[in-house]
Predict the structure.
Amino acid sequence: DGGITQSPKYLFRKEGQNVTLSCEQNLNHDAMYWYRQDPGQGLRLIYYSQIVNDFQKGDIAEGYSVSREKKESFPLTVTSAQKNPTAFYLCASSISSSYNEQFFGPGTRLTVL
Amino acid sequence: AQKITQTQPGMFVQEKEAVTLDCTYDTSDPSYGLFWYKQPSSGEMIFLIYQGSYDQQNATEGRYSLNFQKARKSANLVISASQLGDSAMYFCAMREGRGTNAGKSTFGDGTTLTVKP
């Protein structure tokens, strides 16, 4: 079945460690996105990529990094520079960065101890 | 500046009744798209409905309709015949089409809908 996978579902890390969240899609979508969601709040855009080998900063990119070497993959690294990394992270993709709806993965809940 | 405003943190509706969830937006881009998503307690995000800025008619998808008032910059979601399974958080989102923000999506803070039996 086509869709977006994120792994792992739950992730625990010690403070000061970098951690990489996986996001893979087999929908042949050009655009991919990473969002952060804090409890009871909306989604905030971290990074987005409109096409392979290209990506742009979103509204809260500080302390995060991404790569888009393959169309189907858009991993997010949460670095030690991110002050408060504990959150729910959602990856999404869309056919293009135009007005197509986004399809979301199941999310990764990151807890930094 | 906040681009998407959802003023109702929580809403209650009786089963089988209709409910309207409010959304106002702010943009100077004449070309944009408006979206509504549903997030159940499981955390997944489910696309519900889309309205383009140039669309002449209000969008409808089954029990969902979007009351688009362009001059007022509002894009309210109407859910008819509410069901218990509609209890979830609902997010309004906008994507701009041009300029430096082209391709970016902005989400509101969401409205938690509770359907009462």
Summary: The mean pLDDT of chain A is 92.
